[in-house]
Every structure is written in structure tokens, then in C-alpha cells.
Amino acid sequence: MNKPKAFIVRMSIKNGDIPVDADEVSAVFAGITRGNIVRVRRGVINPSFFVGITEDVERLRAWWNEANLIIDQNRQFDNLGIGQKRELPQFTTLKDIFEGVDLKMNNNKLIS
Question: Exposure of 35 by Cβ count < 10 A (0-12 exposed, 13-18 middle, 19+ buried)?
């Protein structure tokens, strides 16, 4: 089982941290280095307030807890025939809060 990846973009403003998936990290780095605002699934990142990127320990812990519970239940099924065998959970991508919203972008820059 491969370890999933999840991150948090740390911002200097209070309550401004934004969770991102692994497939969004390169766009965040590109936007930050160019000084461009970056749109990700869970928000918009202003490079002026960027502090760093850390692992999203809480989101990963929740996934690992669920996966370990299923592993234990599957072991119990294999050894004792109790319960039902289940597939391990997929690590799901974050929901896009902008879904259905027409954001105009020009070269990865938000325009109004």
C-alpha cells in the first residue's frame, strides 16, 4: 500500500491555511515563484501571504485510521471467517469549492 500525499499551504494570515492535494503542489510552487495568485480546489493562494507547505497530518491520519480498521477486519475475516472482506479506501481528492463557478483565468492569473 502506497502512502498517500496531502499537504497544507501555510499562510501568514490567521485561519488562512489551505489544504492541497499532491497534484496541486507544482502549480502552487510555480505561482509562488512567479508571484501569481494560484487557484487550487480549496481556495485561492495569494503569494504575498505564503509561508510554506507542510504535510496534512490530520487528513492523512484519518485515512490511515480507516485503512487500519479495514485491514484488521479483513484479517479477522481471513482468520476467523467473521465479518466481511472490504477493499481499502481510496484517498480521495479534495472537493473543488469553485465547481460550477465561472472563474476567468489568463495564464494562471485570475482576471475580473
Answer: exposed
Residues 84 and 76: their CA atoms lie apart, in Å, by 9
Residues 90, 93, 95: CA angle, nearest 5 degrees? 130
Q: Give how many domains the chain has, as a whole number.
A: 1
pTM of the model: 0.80
Over residues 59-81, the pLDDT tens digits come to 999 999 999 999 999 999 999 99
Q: Would you state the pLDDT for residue 101?
A: 85
- Within-domain flag for 85: yes
Question: How many other C-beta atoms lie within 10 A of the C-beta of residue 63?
Answer: 19
Residue holding cell 480546489?
41
Give domain status of residue 93, yes or no: yes
